[in-house]
Structures are given as structure tokens and as C-alpha cells.
Amino acid sequence: MREAYQSDLRHIVDDLLDMADLVGRALEEATQALLEGDLALAERVIAADPHIDRRQIDLDSKAVELLARQAPVATDLRLLVASLRMSSSLERMGDLCAHVALVARRTHPEPAVPEQHRAQIARMSELGGIALRDAARVIAERDLALAAQVEKDDAELDDLMLEVSREIARGDGYTNAQIVDLTLLIRFYERLGDHAVSLVRRVGFLVTGDSLDAYHDGVDVPEF
Amino acid sequence: MREAYQSDLRHIVDDLLDMADLVGRALEEATQALLEGDLALAERVIAADPHIDRRQIDLDSKAVELLARQAPVATDLRLLVASLRMSSSLERMGDLCAHVALVARRTHPEPAVPEQHRAQIARMSELGGIALRDAARVIAERDLALAAQVEKDDAELDDLMLEVSREIARGDGYTNAQIVDLTLLIRFYERLGDHAVSLVRRVGFLVTGDSLDAYHDGVDVPEF
Fold first, then answer.
1. Which UniProt keywords are given for this protein, alphabetically ordered (chains A, B) (predicted)?
2. Domain B2-208 classified CATH 3.40.50.150?
């Protein structure tokens, strides 16, 4: 019985890692669809999002069932509580990837991202992917040293968002619709980074027992 | 002991309602600061946000402690699990109000919202406030009939976001910076409505035991 319980707890972590993997793929494909104007790929990302949602619902049910059945305490309890928050962040990251794909689909066949911002958007997506993979490693190995790297990637993402938004404000040659889309896109990528940071902070709670959203700094979006 | 436990559970609900109240005030004040160009009020909303964050951290600690100490099952367990998700949504709603105030501060003394969109923004804020108050009533009274009204308010918020973004795309006379700000603002209000919907859905889980994020529809932002 005890052994089955430990195996159930490991499955919760595996489920989180699977979700992170699905989100990582959605992010890469959404950005590819966006930058290459690949409508079919955008449709696939949008259609795949409910699978990520379903994974969250399954994970939540398992975690609540374990809370009810095993009355865990200490680290096991913290793992389940943190997992409920992490599943929520991962589900939301999936939504954000789908939002990127929705922009790709809406603007098709026009490119959503003007030529001069393509490299910045590609880099934002890359940073989001790195932060997500690192967050997954922090979850798997409870390696809080790596957590600092996720915060650094997020800071670079924030800087890029500022850079793009300032270039838009100063620049010309944009259509109004392009500005709306670019503003949303850089916000989606920036939020992905925020969620990766939330993930590793919750591993901090799991390991140290500090507050579930430790080091919360109130307003999480940098000012333009 | 049993009585103290029931009182602790009631305090969790009271804490959620207090958080909802703080967020409701932040929303009203942020919108007032935005539309009236009131810099001091914007500063106050920004400075107050960490108090909402602190309330979340306290509520989470209490909920985790009750999970550990009382090993609740059935409705009590669901209440604590749902509360952990709801506190997270309320904290995020507080952030969104602070983001509105940040836009007000950044654009001051220029008005952030062009004349022709003031009524729409005021209405989006009003709808967000109504949805939040109704969500709080659903939490307090577990009245799922009222939940439908929250979904309706959210649908009207979504429609307004579409309306404004289409007017921006077609219109002229905007500066690039105004388009960036307006896009962010309507997104902030729209997300507030989404979170109100999440709150009432979690009361659904509490009452019925259905999944924690029941009726999740995948991509929660309407397409522009």
C-alpha cells in the first residue's frame, strides 16, 4: 500500500513533466507557424490545446484523490499542493501557445510579424522554451540552483518585450492591426516566462516549505 | 476541536471574500485613475497590490496547515483545494488592476484612453466589477444559479474587447503608443472577467465534486 502511494506520487511528477513536454512542443510549433505563416501547423497547435487541458484535469483529480485517501503530511502534502498550482500554470502556458497560433491563423496569409521583429520574436520563443525545459528539470530533480537560471531567462524575456514595445512606439510603417498583434504576441511570450518562474518558485515551496508563491513581487509585468 | 476546525474553514471563505473586496476596490480605483488621469490614485493602487499578495500567502498557509492537521475529506477537502485555486485567481486579478494603474501612471499627463473609447473602457471595468461581486456571492452562498450571470458578464466583456480592437484596426488618428496601451488595457479587463468565471467554476467543483476547472474550453480568449 505504502509502495503504491509512493508510485502514485511519482506519477504526479511524471504527469507534470509530460505536460511541460507537451507545452514545449506547442510553443515551438506555434512560433514556427507564426514566423513561417504555416496555417496547417497553427491549426494543429490550436486543436492540440484541449489535450493539455485534459491532462491538467486528470492530474488534478489524481492529486485530490491522493489528498483524500492518504492524508499526506510534510513533503508529500507540499508536493500535492504545489502540483495543483503547477498544473494550473502549465495549462495556462498551453493556452498562451494556442493564442500565438490564433494570431498566426488570423493574420494568414499576411505575416503577423514585420521583418524587423522576426529575430526578436524567435528569441522570445527560444527563451520561453529554455525557461520551460529548465523549470521541468527543477521539478524533476528539485534542483533549486537551476531555478536562478529560469529567473535570468525571464529577465531577458522582459527586456525583449520592452525593446519591441519601445521600437513600436517610436517606429513607423506599421498598420494598426500589426501593432495590436505584436503587442499581444510579446505579452504572450512574456507571460510564458512568468509562468516558468512560478513553476520553479513552487518547487522552492516543495523543498523548503516556504510560502507557495515565495518571493512574489506583486506586479509581475515590467513597465513599458 | 471540531468546532475550531469548522471555524477555521469559515475563515478561509471569509479571507477569499476579503480578497475579492480588495480586488474590487483596486479595480474601481485603477479605472478611475486611468480615466481621470489621477496619478496619486494610480500610485495608491500600485502600492496596495502587495497587500493583496500578502493575503494570498496567508490564506495559502492556513489552507495547507488545515490540510496537514485535519486530513479533511469530501466537501471540506474540496473547499480547501478550491480555495487554493481561488486565492491564486484573486491575486492575479489584483495584479491586473495594478497593471491598469501602471498604464495610467506611464501615460500621465496624457490620457491613456482616447475620447472615443472612454465609455467602452468604463463599461469593461464595470462589467469586471459586477462579475467579481457576483463571483464573491457565489463563493459565499454556493449559489450556482448566479454563476450563469458571471459567464454572461464575461461574454459581454469579450464582445467589448473585440469591438474596441476592431475599431482600432480600422480607425486612424491613434499614435502607436496609444494602440499598444489600449490593446493591453482591453486585454487586462478581459482577463479579469476570465478569472471571475474561473472562480465560480471552482465553486462548482466544491459543490458538485466535478473537475476543479470544469467546462474548461481550452482557449479562453476570443479571437480578434
1. Cytoplasm, Phosphate transport, Transport
2. no
